[in-house]
Amino acid sequence: MLPLPEFTVHTPASVDEAVALLAKLGPGAMLLAGGTDLLPNMKQGLHAPAHVVSLQRLGALRGVRREGDALVIGAMTTLDAVAGSAEAKTHAAALAEAAAVVGGPQHRRMGTLGGNLCLDTRCRYYNQTAFWRGALGYCLKKDGDTCHVVEGGRKCVAAASNDTAAAAIALEATVVLTGPAGIRRLPAADFFVADGARNTARREGELLTALEVPVRAGRVSVYEKLRRRGAIDFPLLSVAVRLDREDGSARALDVVISALAAKPRRLAAAQKLGAADLATLPIDTLADAALRECNPLPNIEGDVVWRKQMVRVLVKRALGRATSLA
Amino acid sequence: MSGLIGKAGRRGDLVQRALGSTRFTDDLHLPRMLHGKTLRCPHPHARIARVDASKALAMPGVAAVITGKDLPERFGIIPWTPDEHPLALEIARFVGDGVAAVAAADERTAAKACEAIEVVYEVLPSAVELDTAITKPEIGLGAKRQDNVSKAVDLAFGDVDAELAASEVVLEGDFHFEGTAHVPIEPHCAIAQVDAAGLLTVWSTTQVPHYLHRELSRVLRLSPARIRVIQPPLGGAFGGKSEPFGHEFTAAKLAMITGRPVKFLMTREEEFYLHRGRHPMRLSFKVGARADGTLTGIDARTQIDGGAYSSFGLVTTYYSGQLLTLPTTAKSYRFSSTRYFTNKPPCGPKRGHGSVQPRFAFEVMLDRLAERLKLDPIELRRRNAVAADSKTINGMRVTSNGNLECLAKVEAASGWKERRGKLGFGRGLGVASSAYISGTNYPIYPNEMAQSAVQLKVDRSGVVTVFNGASELGQGTDMLLATIVADELGLPLDCVRVVSADTDLCPVDLGAYSSRGTFMNGNACLAAARQVKAKLIAAVAAKLEVPEDAVFVTRGALCVKGREGDAVPVDEAIKLAEARFGALGAVGSYKTPPKLGGEYRGGTIGASPAYSFSAHVAEVQVDVETGVVDVVNVWCAHDCGKALLPTQVIGQLDGSVYMGVAEAIFEEHLISPSGLHRGPNLLDYRIPTSLDVPAIHSMIVESMDPEGPLGAKEAGEGPLHSSIPAVANAIYDAVGIRLSRLPFSPGRVLEALQQRGRG
Amino acid sequence: MPEALVTLSLRVNGDDVRVAVRPSQTLLEVLRVGLELTGTKQGCDKGDCGACTVLLDGEPVLACLTLAVTCEGRVVQTVESLTREDPLVDAFDCHGAGQCGFCTPGMLMTAKGLLAKHGRPSRETIKQAISGNLCRCTGYGPIVEAIAAAGEGRRGKKDEEPLPAPLPSWEAPKP
Ligand SMILES: Cc1cc2nc3c(=O)[nH]c(=O)nc-3n(C[C@H](O)[C@H](O)[C@H](O)COP(=O)(O)OP(=O)(O)OC[C@H]3O[C@@H](n4cnc5c(N)ncnc54)[C@H](O)[C@@H]3O)c2cc1C
Ligand code: SF4
Ligand code: FES
Ligand code: FES
User: Fold this and answer.
1) Fewer C-beta within 10 Å: chain A N or C terminus?
2) Beta-strand (E) ranges in B97-222?
3) Would you say residue C157 has pLDDT above 90?
4) Looking at the complex, does the CB of residue C132 fall below 8 Å from at least one CB of chain A?
């Protein structure tokens, strides 16, 4: 058994109550959604909150709704529900595809979209037991002062390993947070920050309540994930692509690559494409650019040379699929 | 015989296991039970300067703390190489080696108490990597502290140099295997209890209760008469539970100290520290042949990474060479294997002990030779096949031999002739074949007693109980013995109960290793059942006043030839026999024939009363962009002598192929140069899910072994071997690359493809 | 300071139970230790293997990653609620869909959840559904076949023996 550290559990019945609780309990409290990330991490001694605030009773945060020009997905919607939602599959295909390949079936049934977006970054020197990390001498992100991935590194570069993050960014989604100061909306691209020790812009006391995905005509999106096994594994690399078309020709393209470091990376080359380029969509050029722009780090288990090579392949496959759909 | 043997029936015992009635070790909860936890060393090699447990002992709920000094006696599965301590006595030899143990009211408290123990270590120079162990003998991990050698074996049969010199073709190849773990889903667990009369009972997830019994007695300095070992059914083992482990002794010691039952359940992380997984090996092979395909000589040099302790290493070192002379042979053979100690979790036997790695190397060499000689690889194997009823070049007696039939079966089923080399770039077929022992005639500690014994007790209600020392791991020995007895005596299966692996109740069996169960227990059980049968027949014959040879057993009754109306139900026959002979029971035992194996030092290692044979054809699809190898199909034909329980045999073949393919494609047990395990959990050590397995087509070949019980031989380990080289050879057929390092991970495949492109 | 105990009410295998738990206890620990329902197994205790799968409100979830206190008022089903007459269990036995049986309880609960949703799942659907349950013995093939058979209302292969009768009634012979 891996005993959990001791804590008190709170189960607020509304978002307001949850926010009030967080304010009262302070930084010693952590939110619990599906628990599929928080609990294994706590069992490995990575977090030891004195208070755990369970969001289980917040039924209002469950479900996929259409609100005007947006798809609003409650934070407590399970990944299974996101993956199975007809609306999501139609208007936010990359997100539905990403949700469908998280972990194994049980994780998707338990795990929530909110929990996935707020997933702790992962690193092979971090996601280990207390004994193991102790034997290593700990690291910057937790209890230590050195990084084992980047020698002499002063900043943690643990990998964003949440499958939905890249999709949310590519789809230009908005993260909705509720805190003591009210509601705050952040583009997904700004929600994730390049610090492996804390890779979201969520402030102390805030609750992620929903993800708003704009619904646009002529939009297609896809998600590609690299992993060794057909299930369970976190991404070794992931690519989300959004392609917007108008009158049969491409108007905008976004390629987001993740599981590299703490923040999913928007492919600059894709953003710079002019109208003429968009019309032809030079897949190989983009894939080569991705290879130049992305450098997987030896932060997660798996052959880093291979992961690097796969940047090109995955980007190519994602773009190929997106264009075939469009 | 009453028709139960050889029927593809139910699994039988699964329902109890599946629905929670079977009590696995961790399912047992004894009143007042304490929970144990082991404090483990964070350094690869360190002297333990001081241990201070006072803070831990002062914690509420902590009952006792012990260190190496409390159990100073050494142990080890091989009597010649006892080099382990339940807790490191003075020196800890790998990250994860046990240093102290706590018994406390619950697991949480025990874990906290472990953290409160203060240990001062003096870190010593270490040899984590095999190269260091070879080049820095001064580290002194060996028995005499002068080098790091655990065991060296050099054996030669025939004049290899002359044969190779006279060969038309000689090929050389280097191979590398970095080790794999067993990963049974059930972790190790042990519970110990001392009763008021001083009897120590240990329940443990062991596949060798008898050896555990002996070693407990030695380490605890307690007469074996005061110890009882019970092995509850296991949730898988694969060789990983086949020797005593530190926690079994610490549980016992803490129970003795506290007077309360103590349970140790390993975490998944600790599983990787107990390890005993397949040995990393580096193999260099030289194989020669004549133009007609006759193999002339095999020269094998192997360096073996043993990890921190001896474990079965002596045997492993022999097995790395001794088991390669079947089913395909050469005119001469030489091997030189050296096992080194390193500061890593100890290696031991995993399904196909010692012989899976060299089999990979050799079968790939054969594929290369076939190509060079422009021979079909199956044909090459046929031309050099060892015959039935013969002797191998290293002196092993071969009796039944279904090798050629196995090859023929996979050849036909896979469409080999029509499809090989014609599937287009990216898809390919590969073949390999192998042989394995059905038990060994080497009983680990030399003795003249039986290797397996079974005792039958016959009840008037028509129930027969089989008491036997064999270890049920999930492979189905309990069901096998029940079926043999039921079949002999004409009883329904549910009237035979099996009580196994309890040293107080059951006669000795040496354990579930080296694929000895079916052969040895089966024979012992058959011998006992036949004695009971003879008494039933005698009693019925007397009652019906017919000669004994006129009476025979059918299902449910004993009948008289030609007088089918006079059937006597078995339970009636039992009563008649009990009235005539007194209490009914029987013992049966099995011992290997006295002279098996070669007349040289080590010549008995690898000698078996019978050998099983396997052949595999694998079909792979290689994604040349990603390097991902998808093993699409594996055809596996296995000669198990006689499939007494076909459902179980097929299960063993399926499971072996699954495990072999996993080792070919996914699994690699990696330790960082610092000595720290690369990822002691099931996310980093990836075992295949349902989406990662090939379609497995298992086929049974029956050669009816003359000495096997009703003709049977092993099926549990043999069919793993050739699955790995079959995949390697299929990859070559698919994309023309020879991979020499396992596993064939996408990065390695891509690299090889790029080299091929350049080359 | 030891954690305060919380009284938890939930429905387990059709029974209403009340049990005192600590907030840091998982459902797995409460089932196995508190309620002595040891049919549910622990293979890793951190969500990697699926051995601890139970049905929570009808959905297969990992008991080792479920806090017991969050199960207040909910319905839990473990393998102890199944019988050998259950077509699924029977199909497992007929197909040899388990060897050591240690993954089997979790596998059965996953399969139960699947069959409740998809009457006759395809083999591909089955493989996906059980992909979070690791088995080290079988290679999965027989498990997939058994679930498919149960979905199709077949028990197994044609030459199967019938299900052994449940404990038969018995009348003692007159002396
Ligand atoms: C074996 C295994 C494999 C996995 N594989 C994958 C994978 O392939 N891909 C992947 O992406 N994930 C994977 N996961 C991780 C996890 O299952 C998913 O990411 C899941 O979506 C997490 O959601 P949850 O609701 O369970 O989060 P929780 O564990 O409940 O929470 C995760 C974090 O988010 C915070 N949080 C949760 N909800 C909110 C909220 N509404 N507002 C603010 N903060 C919140 C929590 O405080 C916590 O820090 C895997 C997990 C396991 C155990
Ligand atoms: S990237 Fe460096 S600091 Fe961050 S978790 Fe890994 S080792 Fe620690
Ligand atoms: S014990 Fe819960 S997933 Fe392994
Ligand atoms: S039957 Fe043993 S793990 Fe599945």
Assistant:
1) C
2) 98-104, 118-123, 149-157, 169-177, 189-194, 200-204
3) no
4) yes
Does C50 contact ligand 3 (Cβ within 6 A)?
A: yes
CA distance, residue B545 to nearest chain C CA (Å):
26
Q: Is residue A148 part of a domain?
A: no
- The verdict on A6 touching C (C-beta cutoff 8 Å) is yes
pLDDT score at C158: 44
How many independent structural domains does chain A possess? 2
Place C159 in a pLDDT band, splitting at 50, 70 and 90. very low
CATH number at residue B219: 3.90.1170.50
What DSSP character marks residue B755?
A: H
Same domain for B578 and B486 = yes
For residue A39, the domain's CATH number is 3.30.43.10
Tokens found for residue B741: 């390092």
Query: How many domains, in total, are found in chain B?
Result: 3
Predicted pLDDT of residue C167: 65
Q: Which of C80, C99, C140, C147 to mutate to test the interface with B (most CBs of B within 10 A)?
A: C99
Test C141 with B14 for CB contact under 8 angstroms: no
**Domain containing B541 — which CATH number?**
3.30.365.10
Please name which ligand lies nearest the alpha carbon of C95: 4
Query: Is residue A146 less than 8 Å (CB to CB) from chain B?
Result: no
Query: pLDDT tens digits for B474-496?
Result: 999 999 999 999 999 999 999 99
DSSP labels, B546-588: --GGGEEEETTEEEETTEEEEEEEHHHHHHHHHHHHSS-EEEE
Which residues, numbered 241 to 270 in chain B, qualify as contacts with chain A under a Cβ-Cβ cut-off of 8 Å?
265, 267, 269
Looking at residues B736-749, what average pLDDT do you find? 97
3-class secondary-structure state, position B39:
strand
- Residue A235 in any domain: the answer is yes
Q: Give the tens place of pLDDT for each residue, C29-44.
A: 999 999 999 999 999 9
Residue ranges of the domains in chain C? 6-81, 87-152
Residue indicated by tokens 């073709």: B169
Q: Which chain A positions have a beta carbon within 8 Å of B92's beta carbon?
A: none
C6-81, which class in CATH?
A: alpha beta
Same domain flag for B566 and B683: no
**CATH number, residue A105:** 3.30.465.10
Question: Which CATH architecture describes the domain C87-152?
Answer: Orthogonal Bundle (1.10)
3-state secondary structure of A67: strand
Q: Domain limits at B348? A: 281-441+597-758
Q: Mark whether A1 and A103 lie in a shared domain.
A: no
Res B759: pLDDT: 67
Q: Is residue B130 part of a domain?
A: no
Q: Which of B43, B691, B746 sits opposite A231 (nearest CB)?
A: B691
- Residue whose structure tokens are 């295949």: B688
CA of B685 relative to ligand 4 center, distance in Å: 17
From the centroid of its chain, how far is CA B149? 24
When pLDDT is averaged across residues A65-70 and rounded to a whole number, the result is 96
Strands B629-639 and B695-701, how do they pair? parallel
What tokens does A161 get?
A: 């390993």
Q: State whether residue C82 sits within 8 Å of chain B by CB.
A: yes
| C-alpha B212: how far from chain center | 16
Nearest to A35 among C25, C60, C67 (CB): C67
Domain boundary among B564, B590, B616: B590
- A34 and A181 housed in the same domain: no
Write the residue with the smallest CA distance to atom 40 of ligand 1: A208
| Chain segment A111-125, per-residue pLDDT in tens | 999 999 999 999 999
Per-residue pLDDT, B621:
98
Euclidean distance between CA atoms B380 and B364, whole angstroms: 12
How far does residue A102's CA lie from ligand 1's centre (Å)?
Answer: 10
Query: Do residue A229 and residue B265 have CB atoms under 8 angstroms apart?
Result: no
Chain B residues close to C134, C-beta within 8 Å: 185, 682, 687, 689
Sign for the pseudo-dihedral over CA of B222, B223, B228, B234: positive
**What is the ipTM for the molecules in this complex?**
0.97
